[in-house]
Amino acid sequence: QVQLVESGGGLVQAGGSLRLSCAASGRTFSSYAMGWFRQAPGKEREFVAAISWRAGSTYYADSVKGRFTISKDNAKNTVYLQMNSLKPEDTADYYCAATTTMLITATPNDYDYWGQGTQVTVSS
């Protein structure tokens, strides 16, 4: 069974940075794609970024492009989300997800496994 465990969330002032980590275990992830999503209170879950495990191709939501960077460490089976220039509207629970489609996708239903989430709060 695949397990995804996020960490790195917290409280930060606007303009600050945080790095989220997603440690994956239970399977060989070389054929997976990984994504980060977020959900603010009262809102639907939205796509943030995705990366293909094998090729390292990346894809970002327009709202975070140029501020967030998704990366991976194959040896550690870990995916990261570096978040810079944070804004109050980035406040949300952030979730890591894995899909066996091998294609990076922004659609939550394409993902097979989800972490428990980590909270990010950006104060103004």
Count up the helices: 0
Shape: globular
How far the N terminus sits from the C terminus, by CA atoms, comes to 40 Å
Average pLDDT for all residues: 93
Strand content: over 45%
What percent of the residues sit in helical stretches (DSSP H or I)?
Answer: under 10%
Report the sheet with the most strands, covering strand number, pairing sense and barrel closure: 7 strands, mixed
Structural class by helix and strand composition: mainly beta
* Estimated radius of gyration: 13 Å
Helix-strand pattern, N to C? EEEEEEEEEEE
Low-confidence stretches: none
Number of DSSP strand runs: 11
Question: Any key phrases for this structure?
Answer:
124 residues; mainly beta; 7-stranded mixed beta sheet; 4-stranded antiparallel beta sheet; 11 strands; 0% helix; globular
Please sum up the structure shown:
The chain has 124 residues and is mostly beta strands.
Explain what you see.
The protein contains no helices and 11 strands. 0% of the residues lie in helices and 50% in strands. Strands 2, 4, 5, 6, 9, 10 and 11 form a 7-stranded mixed β-sheet that branches.
